[in-house]
From TrEMBL:
GO terms for molecular function: bis(5'-nucleosyl)-tetraphosphatase (asymmetrical) activity; phosphatase activity. This is Bis(5'-nucleosyl)-tetraphosphatase. Gene3D superfamilies: 3.60.21.10. Pfam families: Metallophos (PF00149). The keyword Hydrolase applies. The keyword Coiled coil does not apply. Residues 1-196 form the Calcineurin-like phosphoesterase domain. InterPro entries: Ap4A_hydrolase (IPR050126), Calcineurin-like_PHP (IPR004843), Metallo-depent_PP-like (IPR029052), MPP_PrpE-like (IPR041780). Its EC number is 3.6.1.17. Keywords: Hydrolase. NCBIfam families: PRK13625.1. One of its GO terms (cellular component) is cytoplasm.
Amino acid sequence: MKLDIIGDIHGCYEEFTLLTEKLGYSWDQGYPLHPAGRKLAFVGDLTDRGPASLAVIETVYLLVKKELAYYVPGNHCDKLYRFFLGRKVKIAHGLETTVAEWEQLNKKEQQRIRRMFKELYENAPLYHILDNQKIVIAHAGIREDYIGQYHNKVKTFVLYGDITGEVHGNGSPVRRDWAKKYKGKPIVVYGHTPVRNVREMNRTYNIDTGAVFGGKLTALQYPELTVESVCSSMPLIDEKFRTFDTETAKNH
């Protein structure tokens, strides 16, 4: 199994296109296809904040439908799904950009996008266990004792990380550094928390390098465990990136 696992895209479609081309994918068919049969995988948070969330939805939907990619939902995906169900959600923290894009469409196109995303979300597992349990892809990561479980605590963990229920002064949730304590055998690839460079810790890889905050869009190649990135076209928002006391960074 050969994968190119892409971090949180957040509507950065241009960077997504450039990154897949850099990885050797051709867009001649209108979607990224690798001549050697490699597949893409996505750690969630396809939408919100960036300029072209709907184009990302369409491409990922098509790839998953054609069995050319793997997708797991992120917390932003979960919120957009609830919006499309007609539930009461706060249209903020990036969702407003996706909703604004969607509202510009005619009714028929709105229904098409809504149906497409609902199908993508509803058919996605909470996390993927792949390659004979050698690798797990989960949006915000996963504790080793949760692998193979699918209850509500697991859902909260994979969507939001190891949250304590407390908040920082800026309103962001307090999260424990679960990767520091990870002792599982499978490699875990995740995103959710923007970091400057891929954070490698105890066989876990955080590949959200903050594309929508002016960082990079990054892919981790498996099984090679090499990193490819493209620079973001978005303005840099320095305070959105998390730093850790001790870490090993892979930087390309």
